[in-house]
Write a structure and sequence with these properties.
Layout: E1 5-9, E2 19-25, H1 31-42, E3 48-55, E4 64-70, H2 73-83, E5 95-98, H3 115-126, E6 132-140, E7 157-170, E8 175-188, H4 193-216, E9 219-224, E10 229-233
Antiparallel strand pairs: 1-9, 2-4, 2-5, 3-4, 6-7, 7-8, 9-10
Amino acid sequence: MEIEVDIIEFRVPVENNKTLFIWDIQASFSEAHIYEALWSVYSAFGALYLVKVYPNAAVAMPGFYAMVKFYSFAHASKAQRATDKQCLFQNSPLKVRVSTKQNQAYLFGAKSLSHAKCQDLANHYLGFNGWSTRIVTLKDISKCTDVGWSLDSSSQEELLKYGCVVELTIPHHRVTCRGVGVAEDVVHLEKGPEEKLWKSSKVKKWAKDKAVVAAFEKVLLVVFGNGKIAVECRFDREEVLPDENVEGAIQVNDISWTEFEPDLGEEEDLPWDFTVDLSH
């Protein structure tokens, strides 16, 4: 007897078999109502990365279509079989299909999850008390000679840059791994010391959040068909982080500020691919 196994990564799911397309949604509902209804229905099958709802094109009949993206292909497949040709929250049946074509935009590597979505995914599979993080070090690296950014001595701006090392622990599975995050911003000195204090706090938080995401990216959740979960941690052989003395252990790069912007509570606007599996 084959044992069904699913591998869950803490990255944006890009596989086509984790995406469901839903159409024939009635026009009598608002987009907000449809979103809530779809999330309620499909989250019962497993953790969701996102739900998107859009109105039909002007040349089509009034109504809506939607995309639901799971982290697990097994959950997506089960949801498709259970909800296709079912009315769910409306009076007429919905059509639900699995995407069959890989999105070309993501063939060069999946994006990182946001800090909030890493927490949500960990809570879903490991439980609220099934994991923890601690800051190993949080260091001001603004004055490092290799930060890759310089200002004129007469400038009224000052660079703030922090590096953070975070340790992620999953005690029930005896797994521990670390992540590194770096964040930066520029302070306009003419705005006074309060501006620097406020931005310092923000940059520290972004560096810490980025380190947490980096630690989660090393984790693989192995989910078996019977509901049991195994946890593995991937290690980079080139990454060396001392146990506690991390002085100088943070590699400082010229990293774009946009990589460390805070989570805004919005899912990424992923390109749509309407190639679907019509065999089910």
